[in-house]
């Protein structure tokens, strides 16, 4: 298990911004591909965004494209999710996930990530 620690969640009005961060506390030479998922009450967990360790491969869910930006800091083993123009439907528990570089990695698929954080709550009010 690789511990992942998310932070940056909170409450914001519609149209506002939040920046989430996720740090892998176990560091390896090869690093990790990282991603974000979210789950609202009574709904299934869904893919939000992902970034490869190199930073070259980035994927966004269509629902957040143009509003959210994912990035990775290799020196700190940390991924960031900058969220702008937030909508009430963005309200959810946001989870960070990671996969070892060299492992099978299909970014939008939950089962490809062996490591998960505990989640950070994002609430967007009208």
Description:
With 126 residues, the chain is mostly beta strands. It contains no helices and eleven strands. The chain has strands spanning 4-7, 10-13, 18-24, 32-39, 46-51, 58-60, 68-73, 78-83, 92-100, 115-116, 120-125. The strands form two sheets. Strands 2, 4, 5, 6, 9, 10 and 11 form a seven-stranded mixed sheet that branches. The protein has a four-stranded antiparallel sheet with strand order 1-3-8-7, with no helix packed on it. It is globular, with a radius of gyration of 14 Å. The model has no long low-confidence stretch (mean pLDDT 97).
What is the tally of beta strands?
11
Number of helices: 0
Shape, please? globular
Structural class call reads mainly beta
Major sheet: 7 strands, mixed
Pick out the low-confidence regions: none
Indicate the radius of gyration in whole angstroms. 14 Å
Secondary structure layout plus pairing:
Layout: E1 4-7, E2 10-13, E3 18-24, E4 32-39, E5 46-51, E6 58-60, E7 68-73, E8 78-83, E9 92-100, E10 115-116, E11 120-125
Summary tags:
mainly beta; 126 residues; seven-stranded mixed beta sheet; 0% helix
In short:
The protein is mainly β and 126 residues long. Helix content is 0%, strand content 48%. The mean pLDDT is 97.
């Amino acid at each position: 298990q690789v511990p992942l620690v998310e932070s940056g969640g909170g409450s914001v009005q519609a149209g506002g911004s939040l920046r989430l961060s996720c740090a892998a506390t176990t560091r390896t030479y090869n690093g990790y591909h990282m991603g974000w998922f979210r789950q609202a009450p009574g709904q299934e967990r869904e893919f939000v965004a992902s970034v490869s360790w190199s930073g070259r491969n980035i994927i966004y869910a269509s629902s957040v494209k143009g509003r959210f930006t994912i990035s990775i800091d290799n020196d700190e083993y940390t991924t960031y999710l900058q969220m702008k123009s937030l909508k009430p439907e963005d309200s959810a528990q946001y989870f960070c996930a990671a996969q070892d570089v060299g492992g099978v990695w299909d970014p939008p698929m939950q089962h490809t990530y062996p490591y998960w954080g505990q989640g950070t709550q994002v609430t967007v009010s009208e």
